[in-house]
Write a structure and sequence with these properties.
The structure is a homodimer of 340-residue chains. The first copy, chain A, folds into two domains: 3-195 and 303-333, HUPs (Rossmann fold), CATH 3.40.50; 216-297, Tyrosyl-Transfer RNA Synthetase. In chain A, helix 4 (60-77) packs across helix 14, helix 5 (93-103) runs parallel beside helix 15 and helix 9 crosses helix 10. By secondary structure, chain A is mostly helical. The first copy, chain A, has helices spanning 3-8, 24-37, 49-52, 60-77, 93-103, 108-113, 115-124, 132-135, 137-147, 160-177, 218-227, 246-254, 258-270, 275-301, 304-333; strands at residues 11-16, 42-47, 84-87, 152-154, 186-188.
Chain lengths: 340, 340
């Protein structure tokens, strides 16, 4: 977080909408890599409350109520506030100012073509009643990325168009001012792909009721494991089985003993390995994975004042960074400067 | 401008895009009434640079270059910085923050239906390439009006939908928070209607080349009067004439001696009054109207540091007012508050 290092190290920006507890899907796809990235990168994590309001305008309290929860999840998984700046965008006016400037650099037609937005509009059933803020949120996200001068943005593959939109705006701005004022960003898409839900559906999601929260109790973990399938078509132990089901996917994602998992997969494919044995392995793997996270979360939950101070300090630091970028952009565009 | 008075006096918000010199059309439709309104109202005037960027993103320097010019025009016509706060919106981050919140309270479909925006999109030939900032500028304007808690907004009749849009957002917000957090605004539409151009076309506009600038020289004024028509179908002095032409419209708008104008109109209608006589009256009326404005403008142009200080001080005052409104809105919505 030191300002001298910030100039030389690549900047990573990530974040989540504070709309509910983080789950294994977040951990696998993003949180785990953030914990690694915070060493050697200048890392910022946004508790994206302003973005969450774009489809929760009727219920801002729901968003606010999850801000501290999200911070607890971050701290619990090992995001270290001495290495990562955790901040709250609704308290960063420079992001709004940069968004307003960026909105002039992108057409409505371009926003309407954004595949992520098209999918999300459909998923939310907005029909014709799309909030303007929702259509524009990729521009706000571009402003976030640009304001922090982020060059690496860990996102799911479905979010790649957001980075393209950011770079389109950045390129237009850079072309206009005649030099590389802002850096382009690169999406860092996890090799592991998306984690399926415990019910086997493609995406783990709280709204689909197939998520295992990072804060899950032991009983909740056991119940989730009971819901998983190894291979529903594997009826007799002696038959060959397929390893593409949820249980092996989770073992691939979370079992630290990769050799044993590889052996089990080979055995299962050949036949002779029972589903109960495989699931029996998954349960302790998940219990072991989540126990320290749950314990750390509980410890932080007893230090809520410290958590609030972390958000305050992180947001203050972020304010300096984002304001500096905004000032640079305004100056390069030649906007009116008030007399000193 | 004092804070105690601000609570009791109605708030008037007006402004202009700094895209060129103000002209007689502005004077007739808006500036004149602002000079009156500044007595007895808490009056704010925006040099709307951020809004002007929504269709000038390629050339921000053009906007910035007109900021001081616009301030000179304001001061020249008698807008008194001790009575009216003149400010620069691009230096008011609370306006952007409120815009971002408001964007979530209006649908894209609603913005696309806005008749003013539809007309302006057509006039600018945007086709499908409408900048997102342009589609959204009524929301930014709503945020301006709301941020200053303006209740009276002097606008042309064509801008009335903008005030409706503002009130729709304000009502939705007030409904959501359960009380009249922000006041609704009323459009103050000049009774005189729109001033035609010197060529007789319905609207005086710099881009149509039919405007007479407030800063026009005597020669420019005389040339403009020569271009005007009294009644193009009035061929013989003795014939009855029509008084709906530009010359009588201008006399109605600017001649302080209304009785004489009424007599001349009656005479012209009867027949027997020559066009040269009527135009001969208009010329000194316009020369007399614009001479003190031009002189005042020239005097202020020698005090540019003072003009810049006026903008700085006005913008500082506006910053306090708009930030206070934003804080109230954020608190009422229950957004996350950073630890002190």
């Amino acid at each position: 977080m030191s300002d001298t290092l910030a100039d030389s190290r690549p900047v990573v920006l990530t974040g989540d909408r504070p709309t509910g507890p983080l789950h294994l899907g977040h951990f696998c796809g993003s949180l785990r890599s953030r914990v690694t990235l915070q060493h050697g990168h200048d890392t910022f994590v946004l508790i994206a409350d302003a973005q969450a309001l774009t489809d929760n305008a009727d219920d801002p309290g729901r968003i606010t109520g999850h801000v501290i929860d999200l911070a607890l999840d971050y701290l619990a998984v090992g995001i270290d506030p001495s290495l990562t700046t955790i901040c709250v965008p609704s308290a960063l006016p420079a992001l709004c100012e940069l968004t307003q400037l960026f909105l002039n650099l992108v057409t409505v037609a371009r926003l309407e073509r954004n595949p992520t937005i098209k999918d999300e509009i459909q998923a939310r059933g907005f029909g014709r009643d799309i909030p303007a803020g929702f259509l524009c949120y990729p521009v706000a996200q571009a402003a976030d990325i640009a304001a922090f001068r982020a060059t690496l943005v860990p996102v799911g593959a479905d979010q790649a168009p957001m980075i393209e939109q950011t770079n389109a705006i950045v390129r237009r701005l850079n072309r206009q001012v005649g030099h590389a004022l802002l850096p382009e960003a690169r999406a860092l898409i996890p090799a592991s792909g998306r984690l399926p839900g415990v019910d086997g559906r493609a995406k783990m999601s709280k709204s689909q009721g197939n998520a295992l929260a990072l804060s899950a109790t032991e009983d909740e973990i056991r119940a989730a494991v009971r819901r998983t399938d190894t291979d529903p078509d594997h009826l007799r132990v002696g038959d060959p089985g397929r390893v593409e089901g949820v249980v092996f996917t989770y073992l691939d994602a979370f079992d630290p003993d990769r050799d044993t998992v590889a052996e089990m997969k080979a055995h299962y494919r050949r036949g002779g390995l029972g589903d109960t044995v495989v699931k029996g392995r998954l349960e302790p793997v998940l219990l072991d994975l989540l126990a320290p996270i749950r314990a750390s979360r509980a410890a932080w939950a007893h230090r809520l004042d410290d958590v609030r101070d972390i958000l305050r300090d992180g947001t203050r630091h972020a304010r300096g960074v984002t304001q500096a970028t905004l000032d640079t952009v305004k100056e390069a565009l030649g906007l009116y400067r008030l007399a000193p």
